[in-house]
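Pipeline run #58 for the internal structure catalog. This entry was flagged by the ingest filter as a single-chain record with no existing model, so it goes straight to prediction. Upstream metadata was stripped on purpose; only the residue string is passed forward. Reviewer on rotation: M.T. Logging verbosity set to normal.
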Amino acid sequence: MRIYLVGGYVRDLYLTRELGYPEGKGDRDWVVVGATAHQMLRMGFKQVGKDFPVFLHPRTHEEYALARTERKVGPGYHGFVFNTSSEVSLEDDLKRRDLTVNAMALDKELLIDPYGGLKDIRAKRLRHVSESFKEDPVRILRIARFNAKLPEFKIAPKTLSLLQEMVNNGEADSLVAERVFLEIKKALKEKAPSRFIHVLKSCGLWQRFFHNFPVDQRTLDLLDRSVELNEAEKFALLTHCEEDPKKLQAFLETFKPNGEITDTVLLWAKVKHLFFRTDSLSVLKLFETCDAMRRPERLHKMLHVEQTIFGFDVQPWINAFETVKTINCAKIAACCTDKSTIGNAIRQARLTAIEESTANALVH
């Protein structure tokens, strides 16, 4: 039995050593060669994998997987059978991995690199390990995310051709919305999210899966600079170019995001035009559409997105909102003999407060 450190930890270690990348903080993963599931259990490991044997170390709880090979038997990324025989070698296990930079292993301090991962790190190149790369469409999303994670790297031309082949032959049609959404979320946290979208466009997946949903270059550039935005706000930025509510709704239904993201995207589509109107009525409409008196965090999200896209100073809107919040609605209601006029009276008071607080401050 031999145990090797593999995967992302090894990749990040050499990105640090060779290119000066920040030291990685990912989990360590291990591959076990020459063992059986029975032997692992006998040593106190706890099995957690269903499709293939993965075990948790009894003390460190790190993952140890039996070396395996894969064979394609059906469409999509579930169409594989696995061989975890004790005869599977380390080189066999590494060969099934996606990219050469992910197909390196460490035996203590000895690097085992049968497919040239270290050479590709030095060349800043993302390259597939073998032709079997094209059998798993999830790898389109993974390499797109690595393209965002490592902006100095370039995808090898032959690897890009395999991505295009997966789209053209229908293999990518088996991708499910939940997995695509997960990879987009991860990509938006990387150094250059725009590069994720560029890969999907260059191989045709963006056009095929998202029906060529519009994202212009300026939006992509802003995504790369939007480090201050939270996840939901970044999705509002990503979808900013679509003006048709039905197409926007279809886009959301395609990748099925959570409620906060959906709400933020749709709210931005409703209010973004209001930032170009500086009258008090438009400012109040912004507050009302956001339901800001009850849910001020929604207004603040819109201000964050506005500042990123349009670059207007948000302080006048903040000042106006703070002034509106000081209005004593109970006092106004008590002064209304006709209770049906309370709503209008409160709204008029808010308009007056906005006019007094902003004056000419909202002129762009």
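catalog note: The chain is about 50% helix and 10% strand.
catalog note: The first strand starts at residue 2 and ends at 6.
status: ready for reviewer M.T.
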